[in-house]
């Protein structure tokens, strides 16, 4: 793809994502639709619109005719980092702004057995930004991951109750990391700054299965493959407004594999309950190594940060009640466990286990449908065990939370 196309896409993503704090466990994103958000993101076995592709592509076989859906989730996170230094205790608030995660979906029934669909959405993302003089500046001043998946897919109805689906993941990945670099005695002599940028296009796949043995009971399972991004880019070192270096940087960054499992239970004709889990293969992120060519300030050919993340479960529950033939109310809860070990907490992903509480409403007349939802994210406080070689002090992550608002509209032709 041309350089101009890459720059245009990067600009669109920058406008969409803005700056903010990390708002997911790890750097995963699970917000694929307003209806899904309101139901604790658990719709793996509950296909009612094209956005089911985000959770389970096999659910396409439940969508008659041609359908389209567009929407967005708006997220505003915040976090306070407390650092215990020889100069005293400091409380630093990360930059908090609104992020926007757009989504676009379309599905087409080809015949009684085959369906096709395409989705445009985000699977991973990260943002953290701190003041230039804060105590953790040698670890992170600004970190940002923006991405966008294009996901063409097909689904096949094997029997009247069982379906399979398969899709291609084309993921654009853009990475920025900025940190201070000591030029003499840290925190005494003037610092330089290094800004590393790079991007990549990666390929993967997704697959799913959907089984509906009765009208009130269904099951879904889905898998998204890992994508390892071979990121090539640049680094620029500056000091006092002067450019000291403008050279090449490169490294690998993983987009983890995810396994999803869910069920949807019709408790009555009007009331359903969805339960499920995601298993995220975060152990692929064992270290972050960035290579510099030529060496950074003539001294460092590479930097390596140990991560040693572990695989995690994300537990999800949602419910929907049909108030009338057209209106529905929804509620959800999620427990999202952090993948990074306590002894390697860093300021690039300053977060912890999360509890998500959501509610929303939807309107559907059979042809046109609209959904809206709100989620409050409560992030548990966390003790930070310092590893000074990486610029991380003893301290705490505290007062973390986020507000998420989702809206979407769709049409059935």
Fold and architecture overview:
With 413 residues, this protein is mainly beta. It is 5% helix and 60% strand. It has two helices and 21 strands. It has helices at residues 3-17, 34-38; strands at residues 66-85, 88-93, 99-109, 114-121, 126-129, 142-157, 162-182, 191-214, 217-224, 227-239, 242-255, 258-266, 271-280, 287-296, 300-306, 312-322, 327-336, 354-364, 368-379, 382-384, 395-412. Strands 1-3-4-6-7-8-9-12-13-16-17-18-19-21 form a 14-stranded antiparallel β-barrel. Strand 14 (287-296) and strand 15 form a beta hairpin. The protein is elongated, with a radius of gyration of 22 Å. It starts with a helix and ends with a strand.
Count of strand segments: 21
Approximate strand percentage: over 45%
- H/E series: HHEEEEEEEEEEEEEEEEEEEEE
Task: Determine the number of helices (DSSP H or I, runs of at least 4 residues).
Answer: 2
If strands are numbered along the chain, what order do they take across the biggest sheet? 1-3-4-6-7-8-9-12-13-16-17-18-19-21
Mean pLDDT: 91
Structural class: mainly beta
**What proportion of the residues is helical, as a percent range?**
under 10%
Low-confidence stretches: 1-22
Specify the biggest β-sheet. 14 strands, antiparallel, barrel
End-to-end CA span = 34 Å
Rg, please?
22 Å
Shape estimate: elongated
């Amino acid at each position: 793809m041309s350089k101009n196309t890459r720059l245009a896409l990067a600009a669109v993503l920058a406008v969409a994502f803005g700056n903010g704090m990390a708002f997911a466990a790890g750097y995963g994103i699970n917000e694929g639709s307003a209806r899904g958000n309101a139901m604790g993101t658990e719709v793996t076995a509950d296909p009612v619109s094209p956005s089911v592709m985000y959770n389970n592509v096999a659910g396409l076989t439940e969508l008659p005719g041609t359908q389209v859906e567009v929407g967005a989730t708006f997220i505003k996170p915040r976090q306070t980092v407390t650092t215990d230094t020889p100069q005293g205790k400091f409380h630093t608030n990360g930059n908090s702004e609104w992020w926007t995660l757009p989504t676009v979906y379309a599905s087409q029934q080809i015949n009684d057995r085959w369906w096709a669909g395409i989705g445009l959405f985000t699977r991973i993302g990260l943002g953290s930004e701190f003041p230039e003089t804060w105590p953790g500046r040698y670890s992170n001043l600004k970190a940002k991951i923006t991405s966008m998946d294009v996901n063409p897919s097909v689904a096949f109805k094997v029997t009247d109750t069982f379906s399979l689906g398969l899709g291609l993941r084309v993921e654009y990945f853009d990475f920025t990391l900025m940190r201070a670099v000591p030029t003499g005695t840290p925190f005494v002599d003037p610092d330089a700054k290094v800004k590393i940028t790079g991007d990549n296009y990666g390929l993967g796949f997704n697959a799913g299965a959907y089984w509906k043995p009765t009208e009130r009971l269904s099951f879904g399972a889905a898998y998204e493959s890992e994508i390892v991004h071979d990121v090539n880019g640049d680094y620029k070192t500056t000091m006092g407004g002067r450019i000291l270096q403008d050279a090449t940087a490169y490294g690998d960054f993983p987009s983890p594999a995810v396994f999803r499992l869910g069920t949807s239970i019709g408790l009555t004709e009007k009331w359903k309950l969805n339960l499920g889990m995601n298993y995220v293969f975060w152990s692929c992120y064992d270290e972050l190594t960035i290579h510099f060519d030529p060496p950074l300030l003539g001294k460092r050919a590479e930097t390596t940060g140990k991560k040693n993340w572990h695989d995690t479960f994300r537990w999800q529950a949602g419910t929907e009640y049909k108030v009338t033939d057209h209106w529905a109310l929804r509620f959800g809860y999620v427990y999202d466990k952090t993948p990074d070990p306590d002894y390697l907490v860093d300021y690039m992903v300053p977060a912890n286990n999360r509890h998500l509480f959501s509610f929303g409403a939807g309107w559907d007349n059979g042809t046109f449908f609209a959904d809206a939802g709100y989620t409050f994210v409560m992030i548990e406080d966390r003790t930070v065990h310092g590893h000074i070689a990486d610029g991380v002090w003893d301290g705490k992550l505290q007062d973390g939370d986020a507000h998420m608002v989702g809206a979407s509209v769709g049409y059935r032709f």
